[in-house]
Amino acid sequence: MLIASQMEPTHARRVYPCFDEPAMKATFNIRIIHDPSYVALSNMPAIDVSEVKDENGSLWTVTTFNTSLKMSTYLTAFVICDFDYITRTEQGNEIRIWARKEAVKNGYVDYAVNITGPIFSFLEDILNVSYPLPKTDLVALPDFGAGGMENWGLMIFQEASLMNLPSDEFTSRKAMIALIVSHELGHQWFGNLVTMNWWNDLWLNEGLASYFEYLGATFVEPKLSLDKIFYAHVVQPVLREDSEIARSLSESEDKIKGSFSLMYLFDNITYSKGASITWMLSGFLTEKLFIRALTSYLKEFSFSNANQDDLWTHIQMVVDAQDEVQLPAPVKQIMDSWTCQNGFPVLTLNLTSGTIRQEQFFNKNNRKSTDSYNNTWIIPISWMRNGSSQPLTWLDKSSKMFPEMQVSESDYDWILLNVNLSGYYRVNYDQLNLKRLARLLENDPKAIPAVSRFQLIDDVFALTDFGYVPIETALELTKYLAREDELFIWNMVLLNLIPENLESTLKNHEVYPLLKKYLLKRMLPIYHYYAGFIRQNADALEDDYFAQVYLEKLLATACWLGLQDCLDLSSELYAKWRDNPEYKIPLLIRRTVCCYGVAAGSDKEWNFAWEMYNHTDSVEEDEDILLYAMSCAKESWLLYRYLQYGLSDTLFSSNCTSVIISHVVTKDIGHHIAWEFVTENWPLLSQGYGHELLHDVLKAMGRFVKTDVQIQELQVFYNATLEEDEREAITMLLESAKLENTERRKLLIKIANWLEKNIDD
Questions:
Q1: Which sequence ranges form a coiled-coil region, renumbered to this chain (predicted)?
Q2: Residue 528 marked as a ligand binder
């Protein structure tokens, strides 16, 4: 048995009567009466443990905790468990990590306990504000809705966020633990000590904690590159999401009170946009001034509440007290343009005149002529010319001339904006500069810092998607890739060129043989570099974080493009595992190897995967991999049999059935088989899974819809099975899928034409 609480945002009122508002801080006296064989934990240390008998004469334990500091209701917490713990003391703070007894015994939380103290000290030292509690508990729960929760003095995590096998030397697992722990520790200052006035300024908690999460994690894992990982994990994904439809970072209270749920505030805008804006702010202030302002903000509002204007005031005070950093406007005016407006700007650069203009980045493909976006931002521009950094400059109106950015006739005179990711925006260069940058990449890619190469290419693909520039412009920037040795850049390029959900569509299109020739030629150097490690000593990659998170996509693409060496490598390693089930295929590529091992083989290979799946001691991660791999079979009867197995209750738990169907439906030969299977077995399936399954399958089928006739075929089936309102929704889904497919075909023809011309370059 196990009891644990989760109060944020508004559940404290379900546990005890209270004014459940973040600004109504109080001190709490907590006492818990529980079964004597369990231990009770709360925010504060226990000060008394006694016994009491109930009316039946049974003994109970009473644990009384010390009075808490002044705090918000949503941070009160308790856990009743029979866990064990390991402990360390750091600067007088007793840190205990609690987990299931066998997990502690096997050393699963050793890594977490070794980094918690150092991250604590790092934050105390950098912020110059000491942690006010005498103890800190971190508890790993087998099941927990969030990744972690920062309750003051009693942080709660799901096991996956806190545990790793002592034998697992790979950085990626440790990095994930370091990031989550670091995030929750950041909250001990931003959120717990100083809390936002109300939920509309939640980003003051989450954005700042997400910023320090990366500082703390790279402090304890110095092998992680802070700027690369921050760009790839935080900025780039949220730029993809944060468009004109999204909300702004800081909303008015009324707007949120009018909406039904606070939960939707716990999204990527709050976390990642909050962290990106913080990064930008720290960049143009300098970290020294930024931290100085945070210290002053934390000291003034300790044990109380603040809103974003309070933070701006403290930054302004620090800026006014020195003369090294000059800002073009008051801090509040600069920062409100980023936190109170939705979306973000795109800067368009004309190098002949040296003019930069800004506009909101929106999707021009579906813009209605009535829409008008007149948002302007106050934008810090860090830039370099011909490889040397230039002084920071600002764009504070819709357009402005920068004489220093006019370039000469020389092909070697180029400009790069937003260097090192100093700003939260995209850049649209003119053709002249892009040509020069493309040539530079081909001659000397390292002249542009890695993060800037990533940014440059990702921006151009995003501009392509939103109709600012033609696809050919983006493709020009991929010519140099044979000289690109950074996996995180390759990963972004491949996700843009071969999105995961389109693999089977592309495979059947005339663009495929062209892509194959064009990309393989460029992938070979980096592919062989990593394949060498995989064949000789995969453990040598244990410190290469990006290899662990992105190598899989590179390998999968090489195999998908039919690179013989990749297919051989997969068959070799899979056969090695078949000969000796004790052998472990390197985890970083296990999914791809199993998939192509099954694909290249016959029923023998498939049956082995099935056997290993049914092995009692297989871990969940491997089960997911095998469920996927078995859908890679290239023979129709194997896929059909797999789907049949999926129906049987004795072979699978029910939630696997829909997973199996959705895996099979995405495969090039699988989607017809899966569709037939679903329609034939619908009476059975609809009892167990109802419409969600149908919805998922139809969504996947939608990727293959090219004609109205195909839509009608699908319609005939679901008209008979769905309620009217659901039918409408699905019809809309398929209609928009058809439109998307038509647009995509146009795009693929353009790509194919470009590849034809450039294939031999």
A1: none
A2: no
